[in-house]
Amino acid sequence: MIGKIALEEHFALPETLADSTPYAAGGSWSLLEQRLLDRHDHRLSEMDAHGIAFAILSLNSPAIQAIPDRARAAETARRANDALAESVTKRPDRLGGFAALPMQDPDAAAGELTRAVRELGFKGALVNGFSQVDAPDRVAYYDDPAYASFWGQVEQLDVPFYLHPREPLLSREPIYEGHPWLLGPAWAFAAETAVHALRLMASGLFDRHPRLTLFLGHLGEGLPYNVWRIDHRIAKMPRGIPARRTMAEYLRSNVFVTTSGHFRTPALLDAIAELGADRILFSVDYPFEDTRDGAAWFDSAEIAEPDRLKIGCLNAARLFDIPVRAG
């Protein structure tokens, strides 16, 4: 398929680059480093070779979210967004941006998102999970009441919030100790992000802000495949949950998922069955995944052609006002 739009595609600043060293497959750090720092040359060549017309870029993980100092987090986020905006300005026909946000300070995060959207022309925000605040072992999740005004501003700006994974802190999750193969994309990313997303839904966030849009990568971090059981057991064990609706209802009304890093047709078909093709968008997770793998799988996946067109480009074109170049 020609004309695909991808929206979980990453870059790094020199000062955030080291955060990605654990995810260099097979010792290929030099290649990953080059591709994270490159925002035009090889990246655009890869897009051209595999039918991707447009990509929305975002900062690598955890980056800003792992800077406990609030002032330094805000300053680094601003520099990351300015650097990305400069790259987008050079190729606005091919690239867009998601803002990095200093979620350590909800007011600063709201201000930076407003600047990024209104002044830099960004498409929304991508935040790498929970934030460490003031101390390395003190964390914040965004269902906390301190973020009430932040979410109001996100809704007012009418842009999506992409909740991207990060590694859990081993001091808080000792179950991973001695089992490094379960960390990162293999398991911990999805488990961490799914619980965070459920906290947001269960908090009543989408009742208070019904126009708010949440994005989840990796075909929904497992939630589409578990949501029936989640709702089934919540209903049988009422515990004063603040949410007015079921988790499945929020998934179908306020959440979009992408195919980033999850190139498996049965999983995609299950997501289509649970959420509908209108709520799924193509992505690769470049450069942590190979563009060839993601594009070749999607182009040949045994799904209905109208669904392929929606997922590959039409949904993103509608949501982000991107010209369609499908063919």
CATH topology grouping: TIM Barrel
Oligomeric status of the shown chains?
single chain
Uncertain runs: none
Q: Separation of termini?
A: 6 Å
**Outline:** globular
CATH superfamily: Metal-dependent hydrolases
The whole-angstrom Rg is: 19 Å
Mean pLDDT: 96
What is the CATH architecture assignment?
Alpha-Beta Barrel
Q: How many individual β-strands?
A: 10
What percent strand?
5-15%
Main sheet record: 8 strands, parallel
Feature tags:
single chain; 327 residues; alpha/beta; TIM Barrel; two-stranded antiparallel sheet; 12 helices; 43% helix; globular
Quick synopsis:
With about 325 residues, the chain is of the alpha/beta class. The chain has helices spanning about 30-35, 40-50, 70-90, 105-120, 150-155, 190-200, 205-210, 225-235, 245-255, 265-275, 290-300, 305-320, and strands at about 5-10, 50-60, 95-100, 125, 130, 140, 160-165, 215, 255-260, 280. The longest helix has 21 residues, at about 70-90.
Describe the structure.
The protein is α/β, with parallel strands linked by helices and about 325 residues long. It has a single domain (about 5-320), classed as Metal-dependent hydrolases (TIM Barrel), CATH 3.20.20.140. The protein has 12 helices and 10 strands. β2 (about 50-60), α3 and β3 form a beta-alpha-beta unit. α4 runs parallel beside α5. The protein is globular. The chain starts with a strand and ends in a 7-residue tail after the last helix. The relative contact order is 0.14.
